Amino acid sequence: MNYQQKSNTSPRRNTETIKYLDNSDNEPTDLFEIRECIGKGNFGDVYKAIELETERVVAVKVVNLEDTDDDIDVLVQEISFLSQLRSRYITNYYQTFVRDVYMWIVMEFCGGGSCADLLKCHKFLNEDTVCYIIRDTLKGLEYLHGQRKVHRDIKAANILLTSTGQVKLADFGVSGQITATHVKKDTFVGTPFWMAPEVIIRRSGYDEKVDIWSLGITTIELVTGSPPYSDHEPMKILFDIPKNPAPILTGDKFGETLKEFVKFCLFKNPKHRPSASTLLKTKFIKGCRRTFSLIPLIQEKNEWNALHRPNLKRPRYSIDDKLYSKSEASLRWSFTTKKAPLINLNEEHNRCIYGLISNNSTRVMGALDSSPESQVLPISEKYPNSSETAITSTSTEPAPVNIPSDEILNGEALHVQEINKSPTAIIHPQKNIEPINYLNDVLVYAFKRVHHRARSADSKLAVNSLAKQFVVFEKDQPGISEALAEEIWLRMVQLRGHKSKF
Amino acid sequence: MAFLFKRNPKTPSELIRTLNEQVIKFDHSNNDKRKLQDEISRYLNSIKIILHGDEDNDPQPDLIAQLAQEVYQTDILYNLILNLSNLEFDSRKDVQTLFSTLLRRQIGNRSPTVDYLISKPKILNLLMKGPEIPNITLITNSILRDCIKLKQLNKILLDDITIWKFFQFAQTGTFENMTDSFQTLNELITTHKKISSQWLLINSKEFIIKINKLIGSNNYVTKRQSIKLLSQLLLTRFNTQFMLIYVNDPENLKLIMILLSDKSKNLQLESFNVFKIFVANPKKSKLISEILIKNRDKLLNFLEKFNPIIDRKDDNLFNDEKEFVVQQINDLPRLIISNNNPNNIVNINNNQQ
Predict the structure, then answer these.
(1) Which chain B residue lies closest to A324 (C-alpha atoms)?
(2) What pLDDT does A326 receive?
(3) Which of A 222-251 lie inside 8 A of B, CB atoms?
(4) Which end of chain A is more exposed for a tag (fewer CB within 10 A), N or C?
């Protein structure tokens, strides 16, 4: 399914032979086996999943596009942006599908959890561990900043670990691209404790140096267990961070190179903060142990998790939720179509438009007409034969859509009947027809319509009191509405229906 | 730092010349592709540093001028695009950087890169065909969008018949390639409104067929983006003539009405923004009126319950518009099908009741 580039030396010569991967043809549920939900956010849920073809473990972000507050164009841009990043120090993007109103974003899976998960179990991490994590995070940042991207939300929770102990920067959900024409971002993104002063002040926008500040805060978080001011109100610290001097790491238990590293990151003036590449050359980072592995820490955490946090995350949406399920169809409009619309509609839509209404002996269906006053006929009774119910049109142009005959025979015509009694009715194409509430759905409904049509206040009043009377009568004599409705219907068929082969 | 490695081109002009010589070598199969890629990556990286500086050096205008001058003397831009898929993943982005930086470069009020691209139409044409090659689509589209910002280039791109392929590009390939090509198409016809309004008018028939196809797509994202683009175009002041053509075709109204009753609130809202134009049109064609009249009661009923607003902010505007639409539909003549001849439509004037 991944695009395989032809190793042809002249890329242009063979463009026709390149096969496009047609996104819409793939049902992601056929390609991935969804396992447990591993996270949720405002955007939607994250699942662990297995790509069936390769048996690769992946993370799938499922974003509900119908519910999200974000502009769909912004999300689309984010994905283009993600697909242009490739580095072993970030969680890499694989592909995206659209299924129903959901977007499935398939990403690299990090089985070791996040550094915040490590802190929950281990409370704080020793300097060797922190050095290793920060070094690889810096490499991730160096890559991102080299691509002229700002992460904008660096914190332990967004530094992920693979099951083999590799460190990867994750969650680019709010990142932005710096362009030369618009160097400074002036949107308010990030998490308060980790936010750089200039992000909060927003006087002059900001650049990639905000990530360096957040990295300094993250370093404090990793060695102490929490970011500075973590016991304060998040909203109050928005005032404190720009006002107070930069946090410093003190105390004998921390090494001098570590303290120095934190100091470099936390210069309040962003111009004084070194770049990621420069920070990689600091004594603290250079002093990293060559052979170091996070695996024991991760395993310990996993065991601790099994004891203390056995509950799986419950997703916000069910993976099987669909807006366009087959059980419903939407409103049918009446189009006296001479030809099919230009587009290829899906079958559900086809059934919606080309209802089975007839008012003329020669025209069976296909061509529509249904003002509420017009006749409706249960075609199935008179046209049990599919050849007869096939679409015929009075015009010479081809009939629009072939409706499978079994649908017509299975009481579908009765739905039509229902619809035309109430023009906005939703069609329920299930086999068993729900009983009609004759008082509400027919009589009171009809009165409402008449009320709506009444021009003068007097007429409206009269209609109103008549309707009220019927409610009273039905209570008194249950079934009276049904009988009356049927009689009216039969009489109308008698008077108006004889022309139409009823 | 830029010129540390051995056998290195000394000046920006040499750099461009050497790069140009290397890039065309992809055409001859005997070369070690990997080695060539590495070499080209280094050159492109050096170019990037000349253009944008690095940590220790700010970009120097005279070096940039030399570099640009050499670019205009050669076919380097064309050759880079032609061989884009042969370059390393990150080098392709450096090509994009080279383009966008050169495009922004101005001398007085002249833009030498624009003049150059106008004199070499094969470059823009090649860029328009970029989405035919999946792994360079995002790069060529991004360069195209930089070109679109410049009016003269936008005009040339609109007149390139490859533009019609973008409706196909917007429906095929990976998600990011589809949506990115759609974005390019969108910017092609919305950025410089005067130019695009002429184009839309001349090409209205074909455009409407193509955009309707996108709106009818099975892909929810394609549907939403294309209906949004359509409503944006119709409501642009410069596009009035195009709008009048659009709202007089009953097929368009049918499509929009179907979408109006879609299950997606977002699609409903977007299609309402188009539907209201049909209704508001004071000179509705006979066929349009007929459809509205036939569906008068269904529409009134539907609109009564119609409330797709998710974002509270637009509530007032939406409610006003809805009220207006309801009023207009309410005022439509009612129709009754005659018993004997169903083609005989009798209008009953409301006032006579």
Answers:
(1) B263
(2) 62
(3) none
(4) N
Provide the mean pLDDT of chain A.
72
- Judge contact between B77 and B125, C-beta under 8 A: no
Are the Cβ atoms of A23 and B178 closer than 8 angstroms? yes
* Closest residue, chain B, to A445 (C-alpha): B301
Residue B283 belongs to a domain with what CATH number?
1.25.10.10
Confidence grade of residue A377 (pLDDT, cut at 50, 70, 90)? very low
Q: What letter represents residue A45's amino acid?
A: D
Helix, strand counts (H, E) of chain A: 19, 9
Alpha-carbon distance of B118 to B125, in angstroms, equals 11
How high is the pLDDT of residue A328? 54
Which one of A301-305, A387-391, B87-91, B345-349 scores highest in mean pLDDT? B87-91
B314 lies within 8 A of chain A by CB: no
Identify any residues that bridge with A93 across adjacent strands, giving them in sequence order: A107
pTM score above 0.90: no
Q: Which of A12, A96, A330 sits opposite B261 (nearest CB)?
A: A330
CA distance B43 to chain A (A): 16
| Helical spans, DSSP H, in A20-126 | 28-31, 72-83, 115-122
- Are B174 and A21 an interchain contact pair (Cβ–Cβ within 8 Å)? yes
Mean pLDDT, rounded, for A3-16:
38
Higher pLDDT, A484 or B125: B125
What amino acid occupies position A276?
A: A
Question: Which residue in A8, A15, A98, A376 has the most chain B C-beta atoms within 10 A of its own C-beta, making it the best mutation to test that interface?
Answer: A98
Percent of chain A scoring above 70 in pLDDT: 66
Report if residue B234 sits inside a domain: yes
**8 Å CB contact of B294 and A24:** no
Q: How far is A424 from chain B (nearest CA, A)?
A: 6
A95 touches B at CB < 8 Å:
yes
State yes or no: pLDDT of A99 exceeds 70. yes
Q: What share of chain A is helix, strand, coil (3-state, %, to 5)?
A: 40, 10, 45
Residue B115 lies in a domain: no
Give the angle subtended at the CA of B331 by the CAs of B327 and B336, to the nearest 5°: 135
Specify which residues B85 forms β-bridges with.
none
pLDDT at A311: 60
Listed residue (A87, A93, A169) closest to A133, CA to CA: A169
State which residues of chain B have pLDDT below 70: 1-9, 28-31, 310-314, 335-353
Domain-wise residue ranges, chain A: 19-108, 115-308, 347-500
Phi-psi region of A52 (alpha: psi -120 to 50; beta: other; left: phi over 0): alpha
**Catalytic residue list of A:** 153
- The answer to whether residue B318 sits within a structural domain is yes
- Of the listed ranges A177-191, A480-494, B173-187, the least confidently predicted one is A177-191
Q: Pick the residue from chain A with its C-alpha nearest to B80.
A: A11
Protein fold of A19-108: Phosphorylase Kinase; domain 1 (3.30.200)
Class in CATH terms, A115-308: mainly alpha
Query: Residue B352: which domain range?
Result: 193-353
